[in-house]
Alpha/beta fold hydrolase (Nocardioides aestuarii), 285 residues
Amino acid sequence: MLVSERIGQFFLEGEAGRDRLEYTEYGAGDAWVVLVHGQLMPRRMHQPLARALAAEGLHVVTLDLLGHGRSDRPEDPLVYSMTAFGEQVVALLDHLGADQAVVGGTSLGANVSLEVAAIAPERVRGLLVEMPVLDNAVEAGILAFAPLLFAARFLPVTVHALRWATRPVPRGLVPFWAGIALDTCDQRPGAMAATVHGIFFGRVAPSARQRRAITAPALVVGHPADPIHPAADAAMLADELPDARFVQATSILEWRARPERLDREAADFALECWGTRAGQRRTVG
């Protein structure tokens, strides 16, 4: 089923100036879903899921957070934090005139979704959370992203070189996820360092006490054998949230290579949030 797709933008006024954020809308109507990308990745990573959800009648929006994709990329670490990202999602809802949305995302986007539920619970119809980064992922996250921060700060030529090498590759000639990897390599050293610094030297997610106070229904997706996004964090989150169901993917690749099952789970959940909510917890293996 073909759905309409529209690119939009809005502006945030801050102490450092005016920042532009870009988003894509899929479909139409009042059953809003907002999807947020992973760290350093573009919003286009959620294009397949957005199209699948829009085909079910949902109005889906994917957003490039500040410092990512085609949004502005300031080089001040103070503008980057999980709370600031959550506020950007709320500002998007204000811009769209959406009172509520199912808010979800992957990795960084999962944590941002939790932040939105913590700072603006009245705007969250439901949470669609894949690969949250919580207590069990701290060490692996530092090991994964500290070298990126070091390279961006002290070896910026490596970041420039990777960008120059990957930008000329036509995205239409490579598989979709290879194109996302190429887009993720399109970084600027100053903005990249500021983004990683801002995230890792602030709070990574709402506290366990705040998470337990989130009343919105949630679908939490985790997968095994992923040290940065351990399944234990996803399972723990599903236990903490009062109205959550846990879905275990076969691996990190399932939603990328064979998305049908998880697309169906996500669509059923979002439609349920906008129709009849089911409070009963269930686990899907």
